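Observation: inputs received (chain + magnesium ion).
Thought: call the complex predictor directly.
Action: predict_structure
Action Input:
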Amino acid sequence: MKDSNVRVMLEESEVDARIDDLGSQITKDYEGEEVHLICVLKGGAFFACELAKRIDLPLSIDFMCVSSYGNNTVSSGTVKIVKDLDESIEGKNVIIAEDIVDSGKTLSELVPMLMKRNPKSIEICTLLSKPERREYDINVKYTGFTIPDEFVVGYGLDYAQKYRNLPYIGVVESDD
Ligand code: IMP
Ligand code: MG
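Observation:
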């Protein structure tokens, strides 16, 4: 599916190949262990599901929804839990699957909050990272792609709730 308003930054095949790599790396790093994947809704959903399919280990998945952005492209306010996890993470090897690390604010609040629930370990796996925008110092173990400071959509990422279903990563050039 192509959208004439969106300039392609990363083709579907590139994204899929990179998620293959991340899945293999995680499979290797957690050999002999179980993984509990936490998907951060809504943006992380497409990535988390693709990643889960490529981790060749016993795996469970849970979903949470946090929000710090409204229908605009500028960060605002503090992070709110809109939907909490269903299951305990105590003693589990948690990997947070995020769509994008931008300022780092969301994860800088989310990780300490989840640490209090006593997981065995906790790491971040993000499909995209915009290091130029970073304001909070967070430790991201797995990064799919480092991208320039442009507002991107597709593969779960939205602009005013649109474009999540694009199977590639792109930049909105017009929105009609
Ligand atoms: P952070 O807290 O500033 O790191 O940003 C976290 C959230 O902002 C991400 O999980 C996205 O949902 C959203 N976000 C940041 N940059 C973009 C972008 O380029 N496109 C779409 N959503 C974005
Ligand atoms: Mg997100």
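Thought: report the result.
Final Answer: The beta strands are 6-10, 35-41, 59-67, 80-83, 93-101, 121-129, 142-146, 152-153, 169-172. The chain has a mean pLDDT of 93.
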